[in-house]
């Protein structure tokens, strides 16, 4: 997340946040949000949500949900075609940027799946006092 790459660092963290949010994985969500805020990411993206993020980034939501919940319906031409050749060229994704975003999605989808399947929870939950609020 901190290495050189095609996407800005705050976008990388937000893409990861989107991925773990699909699963409701609070432990990873909180870690990523903290890192996002430490790198001085736009706080409105977290507090307000989708309405506050750039349209280009918002266009990845459908892709993220498809990868998380229905990966067998991943129609490459449809999903990626709408991102690479959108109606508004201002929101166009370059192929290298999109591959970078996909790698982040896939990694954090897998990590969230593993975390949730194995019962990984917040440290506060380990006290036996129930879920943290």
Q: Radius of gyration from the CA trace? A: 16 Å
Strand percentage lies at: under 5%
Mean pLDDT: 82
Work out the helicity level.
55-70%
Uncertain parts: none
Number of domains: 1
| Structural class by sheet pairing and helices | mainly alpha
What are the secondary-structure elements, in order, as H or E?
Answer: HHHHHHH
Inertia-based shape: globular
SS element count, helices: 7
Distance between the termini: 28 Å
Number of strands: 0
Largest sheet: none
Features:
133 residues, mainly alpha, 7 helices, globular
Task: Please outline the helices and strands.
Blueprint (H helix, E strand, L loop, with lengths): L8 H15 L2 H13 L4 H5 L7 H4 L2 H9 L6 H9 L10 H23 L16
Helix pairs in contact: 1-2, 1-5, 1-7
Written description of the protein model:
The chain has 133 residues and is mostly helical. It has one domain. The chain has seven helices and no strands. It is globular and about 40 Å long. It starts with 8 loop residues before the first helix and ends in a 16-residue tail after the last helix.
In short:
The chain is mostly helical and 133 residues long. It has seven helices and no strands. The protein has one domain (9-121).
């Amino acid at each position: 997340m901190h290495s050189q790459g095609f996407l800005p660092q705050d976008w990388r963290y937000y893409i990861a946040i989107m991925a773990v949010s699909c699963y409701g994985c609070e432990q990873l969500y909180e870690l990523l949000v903290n890192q996002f805020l430490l790198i001085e990411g736009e706080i409105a993206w977290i507090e307000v949500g989708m309405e506050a993020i750039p349209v280009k980034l918002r266009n990845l939501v459908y892709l993220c949900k498809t990868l998380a919940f229905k990966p067998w319906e991943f129609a490459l031409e449809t999903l990626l075609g709408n991102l690479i050749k959108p109606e508004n060229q201002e929101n166009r994704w370059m192929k290298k940027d999109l591959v970078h975003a996909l790698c982040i999605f896939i990694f954090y989808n897998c990590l969230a799946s593993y975390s949730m399947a194995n019962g990984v929870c917040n440290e506060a939950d380990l006290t036996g006092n129930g879920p943290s609020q």
